[in-house]
Amino acid sequence: MSDHPSTYEPKTGVEKWLDQRLPIVRLAYDSFVDYPTPRNLNYWWTFGGILSVCLMIQIITGIILVMHYVPHVDMAFNSVERIMRDVNYGWLIRYVHANGASMFFFAVFVHMFRGLYYGSYKAPREVLWILGCIIFFLMIATAFMGYVLPWGQMSFHGAVVITNLIGAIPVIGGPILTWLQGGFAVDQPTLNRFFSLHYLLPFVIAGVVILHIWALHVTGQNNPAGVEIKSKEDTVPFTPYATVKDGLGIILFLMLFSVFVFFMPNALGHADNYIPANPLVTPAHIVPEWYMLPFYAILRAVPDKFLGVVAMFGAIAVIFVLPWLDTSKVRSMRYRPVMRWFFVIFVVVCLGLGWCGGQLPDDMVFSIGTSASGTPIGLNYVWLTRGLTLYYFAFFLIIMPWIGLKEDPLPVPASISEAILADHAKKKG
Amino acid sequence: MSEPEKDHGTVVGEDPNRRDFIYIAAGAAAVGAVGVIAAPLVSQMNPAADTLAMASAEFDLGKVSEGMQVVIKWRGKPLFVRYRTPKEIKEAEDVKLSELKDPQADADRVKKGKEQYLILVGSCTHLGCVPTFGAGDFGGWFCPCHGSHYDTSGRIRKGPAPLNLAVPEYEYLSDTKVKIG
Ligand code: HEM
Ligand code: FES
């Protein structure tokens, strides 16, 4: 809350001296110690802190990897293998970085679904939401370029397929593709620039995160009740309440993270990426990392090359404009009995898209027999994907605006403290 | 600053047009300068001189046996050199152009008198994967990435790829030797 007066009192002489010159301790105190936090936040709200930890982990492990990694087509693969075998604790650093990307995306997906469910994108938090979408988009770009660096078979052919998406744009696509690849194929210039940008973008993300938190502290946090803070009774100070809750969330998250790093470090990767890149042979089944699969599925659902690319980027673009698609007066889906079911279906559809993205399009989901010519009859993955894609877009473009107008929301509590008291009464009675 | 200001005793706002002119000129100069500075920063990402000076490749067709293909690397991409069987050539020639997504006669994709040798850029016109030799519904190639089928002339027959596999520029140096590029 911007109208929250600063309560910071510099105690020592040094603090007083600094406060008059650069009130940075005051800023930190007001933002993370005495900051008024809605008292009804649940554990879905710990993912913001978790995401900050993820970004720090990626930057620290990334900078260490760069100390040993060589961005050259003849040496990249071997330098990563050397990190794994010879560099002291290199295996740990790389497994943390590689699995860290997956954990980062897992956390950001939870964070985004949280925002969707509790209406955190609605006025006055549109800019906050859009900044989050920008971070998400930058994360996708960063992770894609990072995945190219080890220069295995999946790295190389993934880079070929994804850069060629740009080539699908009519007229200007070709020249842009050449400009992006720095040649007429994915090769040394491409690897070199992806390395440069993979180093840069996380710091850009860090910058946007600062804007994101700034915007958050201007509007104040949303909360499960979806009503704004009205009085002091509605809040608790950030420290110790939110810090401790976030801390527990982070510890649980790091435990999950450790299970992957120490017990199944390659479970989320693809075995083909341990084969050095060979431009002459494409792996039989090329798939992106799991966190890109829903978007990859949408790309493949559309038979036309250019329109497929439009649909894939559209699937991300539509999230940006969500604040203007939702017509409901009620923020939190807790009080939206109809919409919450469409939300549940939406989550299932997103998971379904991810699943389809990892399958071969012509394979059968189930078959109910075979035709005379021996081809199976039933539902194949392309058609399942098309159905799911349709729901994905309909959710934003039709269901959101329409249900918002039609639905009868449940009574919304007058304030956060009232919502909590009502909860308590329900539990007792 | 629409109101005339008086300083140093002179009337500055006497001629507002002169002031507007200075703003516009300065603005235009700034935009121009940004453009001039941005141009090299953007253009450095285009292929460098050594990348553009790509060597042409010579290939001895004697290395390919009938019914097989050899894949060589050319300008960072795979190049297919296929020695077609008479049956494959006939299949390619017999297709009606009206059946094709990207209509082109087989004769336009090979050199006259050398119909058995088909030389193609081995990069799928969908998103650039390398199609698999001999697979697919049309006996040519099959792209594993998103399921494009090419015939024995390398023409797209089924799947998301929009165009035929590209024929690079090449010439025969002798009966069995070609220079590509
Ligand atoms: C948003 C934060 C980041 C994400 C999501 C991310 C993601 C990735 C991914 C997915 C890989 C491929 C891992 C593999 O399969 O081997 C990778 C590799 C790499 N990243 Fe990052 N990264 C991030 C930040 C950074 C930073 C800040 C640096 C350097 C300062 C860096 C340097 C590297 C290097 C050198 C590699 C190649 C070595 C390897 O493959 O393990 N990364 N990154
Ligand atoms: S790249 Fe060949 S079908 Fe997509």
UniProtKB/TrEMBL annotation, chain A:
**Gene3D superfamilies membership:** Cytochrome Bc1 Complex, Chain C
Record domain Cytochrome b/b6 C-terminal region profile: where: 228-414
Q: Tell me the ranges covered by the Cytochrome b/b6 N-terminal region profile domain, including all copies.
A: 14-225
UniProt keyword Mitochondrion present: no
The domain of life is Bacteria
- CDD domains documented for this protein: cytochrome_b_C, Cytochrome_b_N
Give the cofactors, semicolon-separated: heme b
Q: Where do transmembrane segments lie in this chain?
A: 43-70, 91-113, 128-149, 156-177, 197-216, 248-268, 306-326, 338-361, 381-403
Cofactor binding description: Binds 2 heme groups non-covalently.
Q: Which SUPFAM superfamilies match?
A: a domain/subunit of cytochrome bc1 complex (Ubiquinol-cytochrome c reductase), Transmembrane di-heme cytochromes
Task: Indicate how the chain sits in the lipid bilayer.
Answer: Multi-pass membrane protein
Give the subcellular location: Membrane
**Predominant localisation class:** membrane
**UniProt keywords, alphabetically:** Electron transport, Heme, Iron, Membrane, Metal-binding, Respiratory chain, Transmembrane, Transmembrane helix, Transport
Transport keyword on record: yes
Question: Which InterPro entries does the UniProt record give?
Answer: Cyt_b/b6_C (IPR005798), Cyt_b/b6_C_sf (IPR036150), Cyt_b/b6_N (IPR005797), Cytb/b6-like_sf (IPR027387), Cytochrome_b (IPR030689), Cytochrome_b_C_euk/bac (IPR048260), Cytochrome_b_N_euk/bac (IPR048259), Di-haem_cyt_TM (IPR016174)
Oligomeric state and interaction partners are given as: The main subunits of complex b-c1 are: cytochrome b, cytochrome c1 and the Rieske protein.
Family assignment? Belongs to the cytochrome b family.
State its role. Answer: Component of the ubiquinol-cytochrome c reductase complex (complex III or cytochrome b-c1 complex), which is a respiratory chain that generates an electrochemical potential coupled to ATP synthesis.
What name goes with this protein?
Cytochrome b
TrEMBL record, chain B:
Question: Which reaction does this enzyme catalyse, per its entry?
Answer: a quinol + 2 Fe(III)-[cytochrome c](out) = a quinone + 2 Fe(II)-[cytochrome c](out) + 2 H(+)(out)
Q: Where in the cell is it found?
A: Cell membrane
What does the cofactor section's free text say about binding? Answer: Binds 1 [2Fe-2S] cluster per subunit.
SUPFAM superfamilies hit by this protein: ISP domain (SSF50022)
Protein name, entry field:
Ubiquinol-cytochrome c reductase iron-sulfur subunit
Q: Which InterPro entries match?
A: Rieske_2Fe-2S, Rieske_2Fe-2S_sf, Rieske_Fe-S_prot, Rieske_Fe-S_prot_C, TAT_signal, TAT_signal_bac_arc, Ubiq_cytC_Rdtase_Fe-S_su_TAT, Ubiquinol_cyt_c_Rdtase_Fe-S-su
Cofactor(s) this protein requires: [2Fe-2S] cluster
Task: List the EC numbers from the record.
Answer: 7.1.1.8
Q: Which topology term describes how it sits in the membrane?
A: Single-pass membrane protein
**What residues form the membrane-spanning segments?**
21-42
- Keyword Iron-sulfur on this protein? yes
Pfam families reported for this sequence: Rieske, UCR_Fe-S_N
Role played: Component of the ubiquinol-cytochrome c reductase complex (complex III or cytochrome b-c1 complex), which is a respiratory chain that generates an electrochemical potential coupled to ATP synthesis.
Q: Which NCBIfam families match?
A: Rieske_proteo (TIGR01416), TAT_signal_seq (TIGR01409)
Q: Which family does it belong to?
A: Belongs to the Rieske iron-sulfur protein family.
Q: Which UniProt keywords apply?
A: 2Fe-2S, Cell membrane, Disulfide bond, Electron transport, Iron, Iron-sulfur, Membrane, Metal-binding, Translocase, Transmembrane, Transmembrane helix, Transport
Instruction: Tell me what organism the protein belongs to.
Output: Asticcacaulis aquaticus
Query: Subunit arrangement?
Result: The main subunits of complex b-c1 are: cytochrome b, cytochrome c1 and the Rieske protein.
Q: Any additional notes? A: The Rieske protein is a high potential 2Fe-2S protein.
Q: Where is the Rieske domain?
A: 86-179
